[in-house]
Write a structure and sequence with these properties.
single chain; fumarase; 5-stranded mixed barrel
Amino acid sequence: MKECIYLTNPITDNDILSLKVGDIISFSGFIYCGRDAVLPKIVKLYQEKRLEDNGIDLSGSLIFHTAVSTAGIGATSSNKYEIESSIAPLSEAGTKIHLGKGMISQTTIEALQKCKSIFAIIPPVTALLQSKIEESEIVAFPEEGMEAFFRLRIREIKMIVAVAHGESIYKE
C-alpha cells in the first residue's frame, strides 16, 4: 500500500508539484465545502473581488464538492456543469485542491495544470467523514441551508490524486 502524503493549510505550489496521479493524500486543516447551488456564487464573488467581504481566502485552499448536513459529508459529482465550471476560476483564485468524484473534462484538466492545482477524489464514505469534522461554520449564503458555503476544520481526510500536471486516472 502506498504511503500517505500529509498536507495542511496553506497548500503550496511546491506541494502540488510534488504530487502525481495515484498518490494518497491525508489532509488536516480548514477546507471549504460547496456544490452546484453555491459554487457559481463563489465564482461571482471572486470575479467581483468580494471574497474577502465574506471572510473567504482561497489562497492555498481545498474545496470539497459536497453539502454539509447532520448525516455527514460525501462527495457529489464534480462534472456537474455548475461545479466543473467553477474549478478553473476558483483555481485562479488560489484553490489548490478540488475534491469530489467523477471524471472531469480535458479543458478542466488543462486549467488545473495552468493554475498548479489538482483534482482529487474520495470514496463515498459520508458517515466516516462526519467523524473527521472538528469545527463547522457557514461563511456565505446561509439561505442555501446544507448547500451553503461552509468552512470546516477537519482531521486526516484521505484522498487520491485523480488529475495532476495534465494527466488523469480517467481514460476517455
